[in-house]
Model the fold of this input.
Amino acid sequence: MTERPEGPIALVGELVADRAGGWDLAGVLPVELLRELGAGGVLCAEVEAAYGGLGLTSRLNGELTACTGTLCGSVRSVMTSQGMAAWAVRRLGDRAQREDYLPRLTGGALAAVAFSEPDAGSDLSAMTTRIHRDGDAVVVDGGKVWVTGARYADLIVVFGRCGDGGAAVVVPAGTPGLTVRPVPDPLGCRAAGHAEIGLDSVRLPAGTLLGGAGQSLPLLVTSALSYGRISVAWGCVGILRGCLSAAAGHAGSRRQFGKPLAEHQLVARLLAELVVAEQTATRVCEHASDCWDAGSAELVIATVLAKHVSAGNAARGAASAVQVLASAAARDGHPVARAYRDAKLMEIIEGSSELCQLMLARHVLETV
Done:
């Protein structure tokens, strides 16, 4: 049985409880809630204790992510974004940058990560955002779309081209030239603070450039996306667990044609498929986390597999849960209806299902 980080899970349960439906309908999360979760170490729980974090393994952070995903997909999305930002600082930043930024991220400051652009979604090599040095400063020009958590962020880690390679720079909210425009009415994770950002000659101190410039753009992106993919995958495990609980509870108590729904074979089949989907997703996520914790060479492909399997299972599993609950879940604000919308978005973000399939096929061909 997977060990669980009970303290952080209890904190999420206390602060989120059953409020997610209201946040989803309003399309916004309370910023004070996010800061409290951040100060409790929940939003980037793998950061080392030396920087104020919880120092969780990927396995333990995965269980925390799944529990959060069961309660609220929007909070889980912010957790993924903050975790990616912290990972970028840990992976790319120098010692001074880690000592500066990480205690902020474990102390209540909020962060987002900006990758995608209007013409650079699945193909992030097509990024046009430019980061260039100008004396003792760096200047950033470009635009990003679908930046999760940007509406709430104090810091935005922006990836872009720098010289012949790539770079990541930390942009504080309120910096002249930075604009943040919330995405209206997103399909899923409606309260996660998705936004488009503009960067018009944004001028920053050279110390905001993580680890220097001219690094390999594909390697930069792959490193950060691996963290995001495993976080999304564990979040999908949470979606499946929530859907399974709701569907089983309804099927066991709702009676039709003189017996509980669960005793009708076609409904029982849907429940069985949900169990298989949740258990399969859990196992591939555990494997990916074990690869992460061990620093395995299989890490990248294991995270792609976990994200692909878990997102697809969550989308199909949420649809099955809606089918079992029928009209009981066919209304905005119901947890299963929310899961249905959130799960579909998971098949798109951090690498679409089609992109994941291409990467898996390429891996097979390269290892034959």
Summary: DSSP finds eleven helices and nine strands in the chain. The mean pLDDT is 95. The CA atoms of residues 45 and 54 lie 5 Å apart. The longest strand covers residues 137-147.
